Amino acid sequence: MKIAVIGSNGQLGMDIVSAFSANGDEVHALTHADIELSNVDSVATSIKASRPHLIVNTAAMHHVENCEKEPEKAFAVNGIGARNLALVARDIPATLIHLSTDYVFDGKKASPYVESDQATPLNAYGNTKLSGELFIRALADKYFVVRVSAIYGKNPCRAKGGLNFIELMLKLARERGTVRVVDSEFVSPTPTKEIARQLVVLSRSELYGLYHATAEGSCSWHAFAREIFSFTGTKVNLEVAGANEFPAKVQRPNYSVLENQALKNHGMNVFRPWQDGLRDYLSNGSRK
Fold first, then answer.
1. Which of 28-42, 103-117, 204-218, 231-245 comes out lowest in average pLDDT?
2. Does the pLDDT of residue 256 top 50, yes or no?
3. In angstroms, rounded to a whole number, what is the distance separating the alpha carbons of residues 6 and 34?
4. In terms of Cα–Cα distance, which of 19, 25, 22 is closest to 3?
5. Domain membership flag for residue 182
């Protein structure tokens, strides 16, 4: 299968390129230098040059604070960009896999969100990503909208200074000896490698629609840090940070746990408990 991966040099995109390549697919890796999502002519020219059977879009404006400062720019990329991809995918025709986010929810449910739950974003980033989902669901003929959460991988995330949460915790432990982390925010830490493997599985089906795709189980950020230090044998004083100790500039959901209900209903869920993914990450020399 011929695959176009947009955002191929990103934290998730690089693992997606590797997963499809390992699967024997012909992968065309596209970066921002190759395609401007907010410009439909750029999207059409870049995609139609290779005429892929499948388009995988990981590209987005996802720095939450910047999205809040520049909502029009965020909407141009996350909303209109998704619309442009849907139109071009329908025209080729090609299947579209579009990565979305847990931030479409407000976190007030306090139990794992399933695909049928009402999306009520708290910030500009979540709103623009939701608009992208809706454009795709309205315009694309063959699509998978895939929501992910709390991702980490061996490749650096430029929007976070190149350090994922695991590497940040280990760095702070080395430098300070004491680390304080909140225990009031809950997530499902998910390795990018497992997301990439899940997308390969999805790409071989015609069960189009909306999917949640995260590691099994959940934890607070504090519990995640504790597991990191425990597995690595890091000597550190881990303390619970106060709820307002690290005030966010932009409102975020305190509960971002997703349930892979649609994947499980179709017998396609490949995710393992989040602890297994963390141990693999730390054991396989993946750290930068």
1. 231-245
2. yes
3. 9
4. 25
5. no
Does the reported pTM lie above 0.85?
yes
CA-atom Rg of the chain in angstroms:
19
- Given a cut of 50, whether residue 133 has pLDDT beyond it is yes
Residue 77 lies in a domain: yes
Task: Tell me the residue range of the domain where 114 lies.
Answer: 2-154+189-216+257-274
Is residue 281 among the annotated active site residues?
no
For residue 266, is it within any domain? yes
Q: Give me the residue label for tokens 């106060």.
A: 242
pLDDT (tens digit, 9 = 90+) per residue, 47-82? 988 899 999 999 998 888 999 999 999 999 999 999
What phi-psi label fits residue 246: left (phi over 0), alpha (psi between -120 and 50 degrees) or beta? beta
The residues, ordered by sequence, that sit 6+ positions from 220 with a Cβ below 8 Å of its Cβ are 182, 183, 184, 185, 186, 187
What is the domain count for the chain? 1
Provide CB contacts within 8 A for 192, sequence distance 6+. 11, 12, 15, 16, 151, 152, 153, 154, 155
The conformational region for residue 284 under phi > 0 = left, psi -120 to 50 = alpha, else beta, is: alpha
Q: Kindly state whether residue 140 falls inside one of the protein's structural domains.
A: yes
Give the active site residue among 113, 125, 152, 255.
Answer: 125
Beta carbons of 61 and 74 less than 8 angstroms apart: yes
DSSP states of 101-125: EGGGS-S-S-S-B-TTSPP--SSHH
**3-class secondary structure, 167:** helix
For residue 137, give the CATH number of its domain. Answer: 3.40.50.720
